[in-house]
Amino acid sequence: MTVDIQTLEERYADSCRKHGATPNTEILSALFKAKVKRNNHEPCSMVIFLDRVKDIDFHPLLDLLMEIDVSEIEAVDIWNKSSCMLNGEYALSLMHAINQKLRMVDLQDFSLGKDFLRDLSQRGLTCQALNLRPSHFRKLNLIGKFMQIHTLNLDFSTSLTSFREDCFTCMPNLRCLSMCATRVSNLWTTIAALSKLPSLVELRFQNCLCCNDTGPCPVSSAGKANDITYSVQPQKSSLIEASSLDGWILGNQNSSAHEAFRELLLRNNIIMNPEFQNTTEDSSDDSEVDFSTHQQEFGLVELLSNAVDLQSEVPFHASWNQSEEVFLKDAFTPQSIPPLQDIMLKYVSHHPSPICFEKHYREYMIASLPHLNVLDNLLIKETDRDFASAIFAQYFEYLPYRRNRKENIVDILQMREIKAIHNHIKTPKKKPSCSPGRSQYFYSRSLGAAKVGSSPWPLLHPLSILGNDSGGERSFRPRQLEYHPSNSSLMVFGTLDGDVVVVNHESEKIVSYIPSPGATNSVLGLCWLKKYPSKLIAGSDNGSLKLYDIQHMPSTVADAYYSAGSATFDEFDQLTSVHVNSTDELFLASGYSKNIALYDINSGRRLQIFTDIHQEHINVVKFANHSPSLFVTSSFDQDVKMWDLRQKPMQPCYTASSSRGNVMACFSPDDHYLLVSAVDNEVKQLLAVDGRLHLNFEIASTGSSQNYTRSYYMNGRDYIISGSCDEQVVRICCTQTGRRLRDVSLEMV
């Protein structure tokens, strides 16, 4: 039997008397308004303002709401717009009591607390629309049952940076999601989380200036539909000048009109500095919510991935399809470029999240979410989808080595074993050969692709390395690290205090410990010998250079104060790097000077100093992996130079230049290429034979002259990994096409 509103009022009054509470006038007013709507034959709904409810009102209100399901009230909305005096646990209990008639929950205040958000995430709600703008979520983990929800608004959640792996698993009916002005930045983990939403058709990480809600913008969608396709991406700028237009006007980033329009904006100071562009996640604990009152910034988080080393790597077939090139050429005909005034009026971005500044953000989203109809208040047309597919094919890899579908690691191993058994039975005396068209590294690459495809969330494992001395445990301050060339479980790191520590990073045990000699100095140069894998060269900023044999070094701090097992070389002032040649006979040292020094490892003598070989200091010197006489120097004078010791280096073999100062250069494992990293993400691959440009990875710059970039080869020379000190992300790119495989966010845990 349906309970009428008058009966609800009477029962509410009885419950108040029972619990010794005065009836809340706001609750009585809400019931009265619902009664008026019913009498006027309007939809009978009730609105409850939590910020007008106190703890003493809880029990009578809970009794009232538990009867809503059997009453003539059709829907209940929960609002909270100012500081709430109600306990967060009480508030959530009230929402769950309403059950199926809970329609809208709009919480625009943080006062309900951390526990409320965590319980909400884990238990879920039966509401149809949930507005948490803003919220204190740090890593979104909505794993509770939200079976009825169709709209979720997380705008202005300025602590929100990422998603837990199980987020969105219980939202089958979510259609509209808005996350403007958050700190979400990673395309890959974002798409992995959003892909679990089968009904998602509208998405926002920025909004059109004239639109407060989701849905296509009535201005940009008005008029005659056209087939012009262009990227909606806010422009970065070093300017910090705010304009009366609080946003960015966007255009075709691939057209000449775009550049002209950008210049126009710069001249008129319209472009603002992105509000969240260089913020990083406060992850001082493993909490999923953040109630700090200010944003914290972190320095460099150094992470090097220990990838599969494919010795004597061979090229693989990775050139992208010719038809894709034809499509893109056709897409950028002069007729396809919209007039400048059309670009200006088409879209104005407002409150963008950092993800919007990723190159080809819109195309990546459209290609990865095929059911999406509206993105950032812009309608997605068929021409947009075609264009996005072509852009994705040119600039991104779905899986490594052009795999089109995810594979199971167990299946690959079984296939490899079956193939090995078949080859053994068929030709027992012959070496098993690869299948036609398959590289000898087919299975290694397949396993790598399967591992990458298994989860877009990286396994980040912080190392906890502590030493023991007479004063108890002591922690280290790492400055430089190098993985062992043949034992993947070992690495050596040098500290800001002058210690050299060899650790097994898998077991987190110290293998060898070499303490600082006494004077304050930092270890900046480390290099393992290849033929003598227990030996390494270490250099410090005070100029000291030593050869250590870890077999003769103790593993504890207390026993480390002796010099057995080490050899000392002539000092090299202001040292920054050392590197040993392929035969373990020679090594080079460079530093904050225009000179480098050559040393003989066997005799311990310094053979020669090569002076003034660059215009500015030489940051890194590297020998080739297979040619003991060839080496390369990279300098902040913007030049990279190849040298040959057989020619008594007076003139370089060649010089290649960057547009900014070079941070480092290194050879590919087979010495075919040079990987050059200059300041602020200028990363290029050169042909080692003559220095010609082979590939520009086109990683977006930040505009910072202090954003020092380092890049390394991984999986042989199939991929590179690149990171910069001002960014909490490392990027993995294909060395044959330049396509981006993945960005890995480095979150401190």
List the helices and strands and how they pair.
Layout lengths: L4 H15 L5 H15 L5 E5 L8 H8 L9 E6 L7 H11 L3 E6 L6 H10 L5 E3 L7 E2 L10 E3 L8 E2 L12 E3 L8 H8 L7 E3 L2 E2 L39 E2 L6 H12 L54 H10 L8 H7 L1 E3 L10 H8 L5 E2 L2 E2 L2 H14 L13 H18 L15 H13 L11 E4 L2 E4 L2 E6 L6 E6 L4 E5 L4 E6 L8 E6 L6 E6 L4 E5 L16 E4 L5 E6 L5 E6 L4 E5 L5 E5 L7 E6 L6 E6 L3 E6 L9 E4 L4 E6 L5 E6 L3 E6 L5 E4 L12 E6 L4 E6 L4 E6 L5 E6 L4
Parallel strand pairs: 1-2, 2-3, 3-4, 4-6, 5-7, 6-8, 8-9, 9-13
Antiparallel strand pairs: 10-12, 11-12, 13-14, 15-16, 17-18, 18-19, 19-20, 21-22, 22-23, 23-24, 25-26, 26-27, 27-28, 29-30, 30-31, 31-32, 33-34, 34-35, 35-36, 37-38, 38-39, 39-40
Label this structure with key terms.
749 residues; elongated; nine-stranded mixed sheet; four-stranded antiparallel sheet; alpha+beta
Q: What is the spatial order of strands in the main beta sheet?
A: 1-2-3-4-6-8-9-13-14
Helix content: 10-25%
Strand content: 15-25%
The count of strands amounts to: 40
Q: Separation of termini?
A: 55 Å
Please mark out the parts with pLDDT under 50 across 5 or more consecutive residues, or reply none.
Answer: 223-231, 236-286, 293-329, 331-345
**Coarse morphology:** elongated
Mean of all residue-level pLDDT scores: 80
Number of helices: 13
Structural class: alpha+beta
* Radius of gyration from CA coordinates: 31 Å
Major β-sheet annotation:
9 strands, mixed
